[in-house]
Amino acid sequence: MIRSPKKLMLSAIIKFVVGISILGAFLFFCGGDFAYLNAWIYISAFAVCIFSLGVYLFTKDKELLEKRLNSKEKEDAQKAYTVSASASLIATFGVCGLDYRFNWSDVPLVAVIAALIVMLEPSVDDAFVSVKIGWPLNCNWRFR
Q: For the chain, which end, N or C, has fewer CB atoms within 10 Å of the first or last residue's CB respectively?
């Protein structure tokens, strides 16, 4: 059963804020410094993407939004995938923070800006069908 729109929105906002806060805390903890500019850029861009998708689902398919907010998987294969994907993301963000802390690599600002453009493209230009967001939404029968 779908929650009332107010409760669904409140739940989505709380999970959004908590998720972004945890991501930021982890990146800055591993990076060892709040002056970690690339972390601020990534967190901001990630927040825009997640917020945009949340608004889209809230306006188009509240049932799917509620399902996505419920993080308890029922099937064993889905549980295993969720655990492995989460571990992979945690390791990736950890290595990024440690890379900044120990100055293992030097990424040019042009590369950071190019990656940001590629990451934000589906959020900025919704007319362009993108592999990241547009393709799954296009192929999913719920969005036709």
A: N
Burial class (CB in 10 A: 0-12, 13-18, 19+), 52: middle
What are the pLDDT digits (tens) for 38-86?
A: 899 889 988 988 898 899 889 988 888 888 888 777 788 888 888 898 8
Q: Tokens in use for 26?
A: 């982890």
134: buried, middle or exposed (CB in 10 Å: 19+, 13-18, 0-12)? middle
Q: Single out the residue of 52, 41, 47 nearest to residue 19, CA to CA.
A: 47
Q: Tell me if 96 sits within 8 A of 30, measured CB to CB.
A: yes
